[in-house]
Amino acid sequence: MSVFPKDFLWGGATAANQCEGAYNVDGKGLSVQDVLPKGIFGPVTDGPTEDNLKLEGIDFYNRYEEDIKLMAEMGFKVFRMSIAWTRIYPTGEEDAPNEAGLAFYDRVFDTCHKYNIEPLVTLSHYESPLHLSKAYDGWRSRRLIDLFAKYAETVFRRYKDKVTYWVTFNEINVTSHVPLLGGGVLTPRDQLSKQDMYQAAHHQLVASGLVTKIARDINPNFKIGCMVASAPRYPMTCHPDDVTYAMEEQQELTLFVHVHAKGEYPYYTKRLFDRDNIKLEITEDDKQSLTHTVDFISFSYYNSKTVAKDPTKYELAQGNLYRGLKNPYLEYSEWNYPIDPQGLRYILNFYYERYELPMFVSENGMGALDHPIEENGTLTINDDYRIDFHKGHLREVGRAIEDGVDVFGYTSWGCIDLISAASAQMEKRYGFVYVDRDKDGNGTLERYRKKSFYWYKDVIGSNGESLFE
């Protein structure tokens, strides 16, 4: 028998800004992603430019039926996706929502249900309305709390019978490190203090609690989750300095989960904030909003992070947002990311031990350069490297379940090839489905099944038993 529960939610994940395209169609407003043609590593432009691959994305806006059908062919039980705030409220400040945007997501959800796929919807996935970034510097302003609540209430009411699982913010902890990506903050990071970044993140935490209450008032059957970027911290050595440093870094990460799960900041917040001279403005209303805790914890996991009190003695590694030191016991991808399946079992146990809330792995995957070949008149990709990555990580999810962790779902990141969130590139592909589009935006946008497509189909069809054969 499989170690995975019989109702385990197998699936994949995307984000509106990385797949939909149609940036100016049917009344959609501009988001910060529409003026970042080189991602967070490049300049903010005055407006959309032709070299921004996200403007067309992979044309999910027009091809969603084809894409969801491919997901159904793999056997998906769940599809994690996001709603583009600017399709519903183009600037974020309109009095009435944009009906064409609401109708689009009606069609998407109806198509999911046609194939018995459960939507899991992220309300905010790195795409703050550009107007709010320009007018208020994004989430640095309290004004966004009420505007976000209005948007959330609109979609909760519209889709109360079509969506059960909701996530408030994608990787909410990223705002305290990459405020442009996470919080739509246009002020350059080098001009912001830790105080500025954590205050913006605090506003998001308050908004998350507020909309969790709104959701339950509208439909008590909703399941509301948080979502954080997770990379367990390993000490480089067993020297107490390194072990303590790793503990402090892990606490800084766990703070965001703790607020969502317990309804208040954790005991170690004072020490962390005193270190960086952070004095948050927290009102009594803020405290009340934070008490509305989540039903489940979800997170992204791409790699672990190895740290040391004195990092200058060690070689650096890359990673997905969280970048640490080169761990000599791990293998590395062609992007120099650590490949650490056991870290996924570790972080599942780490969170569950502390909070005992159901766990959902909402992002996990391997970015790689795929090389399509023609077989029997069609393109395919023999991506054994991706199969090996997912097999290793899913086995560790199974072992976490055997440990006693309540894990109810797993969505591979970029189940269909997407535009990169951080760099706005197409080359680093994660999907089980290949999209014919190159780094310059050329291609037919046709979809092709990779070798991993059929492998994942077998995994889902066996409810994970094939992972251990």
Automatic annotation (TrEMBL):
Pfam families registered for this protein in UniProt: Glyco_hydro_1
Top-level lineage group: Bacteria
Any GO molecular function: 6-phospho-beta-glucosidase activity
Enzyme nomenclature, EC number: 3.2.1.86
Catalytic-site annotation from UniProt: E363 (nucleophile)
Keywords recorded for this protein, A-Z: Glycosidase, Hydrolase
Family, similarity comment: Belongs to the glycosyl hydrolase 1 family.
Record protein name field: 6-phospho-beta-glucosidase
